[in-house]
């Protein structure tokens, strides 16, 4: 799958681009209505951070590297908003057992709610705030007591769907901003179809997953155009498990699929690099390229 340095899901090395991503000076895209891409001036970024038991060091490293991320955004002149939620979702299902149906559930998830912590006056951080990097560093330290079945894709969708419709995350999204998501986890995605019945002795995360294409399609529909959103995944790149000073990470196959299906506006970086500097730099590269080719707003 596409990993750090190869341009996300975009083309190969046959387009004359160094390092196999994008040409140095791509011509502007001309859209059917006659408009052409204009660099976006705003970006709305959602970080979906794994808060399960093994993620303490990664959260600390994210906080340590975030000032550099913010510095690049500041230098770009983009009007940014940054929000944080976790990978935790409440769920329930039924398992068939020899003695009859057995209901099971998990609670304690944030369910896509953007978290207002650390003295924040709203559910997101803005460029004009006093200390965006420091506030994010505090807000991103979600702890490690979240649900053990990580559902970053479902949480991402809930942040823009259920938590918008019920008003929780209201006001965050700007139609003329590039929507950007960063998914950080050391496990595979376990976003499953709700209200399922699980065969006896099967794992929820092995058999009942919602198709990844549903989440790509949702973001296309929500933003109105594939060119209006971008994604960066920092997870296990596969094949198999990887190991770093942070610990082990499983191959995030579903998140790899998500990046592949998204195409050039997405990138997968390894959480096992031992430092999230590279993952955040890859995210900025993809977000900047997507911003350069932002479709005109009707």
Topology:
Layout: E1 42-49, H1 56-76, E2 79-86, E3 91-97, E4 100-106, E5 125-126, H2 132-139, H3 152-160, H4 162-165, E6 178-184, E7 197-198, H5 204-207, H6 212-223, E8 229-235, E9 242-244, E10 247-249, H7 253-262, E11 266-270, H8 277-292
Parallel strand pairs: 1-2, 1-6, 3-7, 6-8, 8-11
Antiparallel strand pairs: 2-5, 3-4, 9-10
Helix pairs in contact: 1-2, 1-8, 3-6, 6-7
Give a quick precis of the structure:
With 298 residues, the chain is of the alpha/beta class.
Characterise the protein shown here:
It is built from eight helices and eleven strands. By secondary structure, the chain is an alpha/beta fold. It has one domain: Rossmann fold (3-Layer(aba) Sandwich), CATH 3.40.50.410. Strands 5-2-1-6-8-11 form a six-stranded mixed β-sheet, sandwiched between helices. It is globular. Mean pLDDT is 86; it is low at 1-36.
Structural class: alpha/beta
Please give the radius of gyration in angstroms. 19 Å
Total strands: 11
How far is the N terminus from the C terminus?
Answer: 34 Å
| CATH topology call | Rossmann fold
Compressed to H and E, one letter per element, the order equals EHEEEEHHHEEHHEEEHEH
Biggest β-sheet: count, sense, barrel? 6 strands, mixed
CATH class: Alpha Beta
Proportion of residues in β-strands? 15-25%
Overall tally of structural domains: 1
Identify the notable features of this structure and list them briefly.
single chain, 298 residues, alpha/beta, Rossmann fold, 6-stranded mixed sheet, 3-stranded mixed sheet, 8 helices, 11 strands, disordered N terminus
